[in-house]
Structure formats: C-alpha cells, structure tokens
Amino acid sequence: MKQRNGTGWYAAATYVFAVGMAGTTLPTPLYGLYRGQLGFSELMVTIVFAVYAAGVIAALLVAGDFSDVLGRRPVLLAALALSAASAVCFLFEGGLPLLFTGRVLSGFAAGLFSGAATAAVLELAPSGSSGFAATAANMGGLGCGPLLSGVLAQYAPKPLMLPFLAHLGLLAVALVLTLVLPETVHRPEPRPPLRPRGMAVPRQVRPVFVPAGLACFAGFSVFGLFTAVSPGFLSETLHVGNLAASGAVAFSVFASSLAGQALMSRTGVARGLPLGCVGLVAGMVQVGCSLLVASLPLLVTGAVTVGIGQGLAFRSALSAVGERAPEEHRGATLSALFVTAYLGISLPVVGVGALSVGMGLRDAGLVFSACVIVLAAAVGFRLHRARG
Predict the structure, then answer these.
(1) Burial (CB count within 10 angstroms: exposed 0-12, middle 13-18, buried 19+), residue 94
(2) pTM summary value
(3) How many domains, in total, are found in the chain?
(4) pLDDT number for residue 331
(5) Taking all residues of the chain, what is their mean pLDDT, rounded to a whole number?
(6) Which of 52, 73, 260, 371 lies 20 to 30 Å from 284 when distance is taken between CA atoms?
(7) What is the CATH number of the domain that holds 386?
C-alpha cells in the first residue's frame, strides 16, 4: 500500500537514487591514473568499463521486478550494499581483478536501483507531482559521479582513494534514509516465487521497437564514449590534463540529457524521437570536429548537443514503446529496450578501444563519431518518412 508523507520522503528517496547512480560513473576521470599505475592499454580501459553494462543487463533480466515482490526497501538495501562493495574494491585495488569485480558489482547495483529506486521515487511523490525527480536522480547522479571524483582527484590528496571514501560516506547517509523510508509495496502472503522476468517484444510492438531501440543504442553508445574514453581524448588529443575538467565534460552530457528529456513534454513522442536523432547527429559532428582540430570548446558544445539529443530520443523511445506494448508484456518489452540501450553503452566503446590499438585514439574516435552519425541519421530519416 502506498504511503505518502510529503516531500521529505520524496526527497530522501531521490537522494538514495542519485547517490547510488553516482557510484557507477565515479571512476570516469580516474582511468588515466589507473592506466599509468597498472600499465594497461586504452582497450583494457574500455573493457573494464564495459563489464559494468554486463552487470546491469544481468540484474535487469534476473531481478528487474524483485522489488514488486520483496518490497522497495529490501532491494534498495541490497543495491546500496553492492555499491559499497564496489567502492571497497576500488579502494583496495591492486590490479585488474579488483577493478573488474568493482565494475561488475557496480553494474548489479545500477540494475537494482533502476527498477526499485525509480518506483520508490514515483510512489513517494507528493500528489500532483509528475515524478520527474526519478529521471533527475538517475541522470543527475550519473553526471555528479565523475564531477565529484574529478574535483577530488585534481585538488585533494590520494586521488585514487578519496573519491571512493567520499562515496562510502554518502552511501552511509543513504543507508540510514533507506532504513526509515516508508515501504510502498504491500507484500502478498504467501510470497510468490522470485522468477527472472526476462524480456519479450510482441509482434505488434516491433515496428515501433526497432527504430526506438536503434536510437537508444546510438544514444547510449555516446554515454559509453564520454564515460570511458573522453578522459583519453582530453589528455592525448586535446592535451588537457586537469581531472576536474574531465569530470565536468562527462557531467555535461548527463545534465544535457536531463534537459533533453524535459523537452519531450513540448515536442511530444512522435516529433521527439526524430528530433533526438537530429541532436545526436549534430552533436557527434561537433565531437568529430573537436578531435580533428583539437578544440576543447567544440568537444563541450558537442557533449551538450548530443546529450540533449540522447535525452529527447530516449524519453520518446520509452514512451512510444511503453504506450504500444500490451499491459501484460509491458515490463518485459521495456526490459528489452533497456538491454538494447546497455548493449549500446558497452559494445561500441570496446570497439573504440580495439581500434585505438592500431590507429590511435583520435582516429578511433573519428570512426566512432561517423558510425553514430550514420546510424542516428538513418533512424531519423526512417522516422521522418513514416510520419510523412
């Protein structure tokens, strides 16, 4: 049964969600330091990053709806524990095994937060609220992670320890808040068995799902680029060694995505998806040009533009697929969309790392930019023709 106790619980749940998601992007500005300390290649950086997405996908497929059965608080507590365990792995890392373990645990945590925390924020929202705080907590947390670690790593001692100690402190506050949050789920007795919900795309949804999924794939691949490889672009191509600047660039993508999602209320779903694709194309053109001419301002404007496009396309895709999917298959269909998105955040960025071994990071980034431009333009053109 829902319990609404005003904006206090709403704000508390939003904080828990944001802090949990911040941990998933905390290592972004630090990958260069790990490379120098452990001596691995840019390809290995992208693989370390990508195993996070594997953890998210596994959690979504196996436990995506567990909070509907167990309640929100138990699942949130499990997610916080996994997030803390991830931070501990980074604190005590002595090589790649703990880095991989930390990233996988972080992915598991993000997968649990995605369902349970979103639901908790929406259910604790004051009457009349649109629940936009759920999206703000998700994207805002993802953006604040690299900003926090970049500032601490640049201007405070122990750059590979202090960001994770700070996050553990934030998680401790989130733990206390979670323990006192009102439970919003009436747990049935006897408890039904916990079963993986899997994913499915009914035949009648596929005409909408295919372009929506491709747009999500393209948009999330840009997230992968900026959270895994952009620090390398800044240091190697643009010769910017400031870790706070690296974190700020990653932050700008997520903050702009939030702005793009807010725009959908004005554009509507039908216009939002093709317009989002236009934003992806325009942004990646700027990112590609920034690599060609070694321009930090162009990289930043490209990050903002591509973030707005990603946010607009992503929220429009969620709405379009959610509206078309039958109620009895809606959760499984949206799971398939999220899996498509998280494949986008992982596979292409590993490709960038592999290409960088042979052709250098800048040229690999140019190839990636061209691929995203072609994919987003093709999806946008198809959607435009369908509307016409």
Answers:
(1) exposed
(2) 0.90
(3) 2
(4) 66
(5) 89
(6) 52
(7) 1.20.1250.20
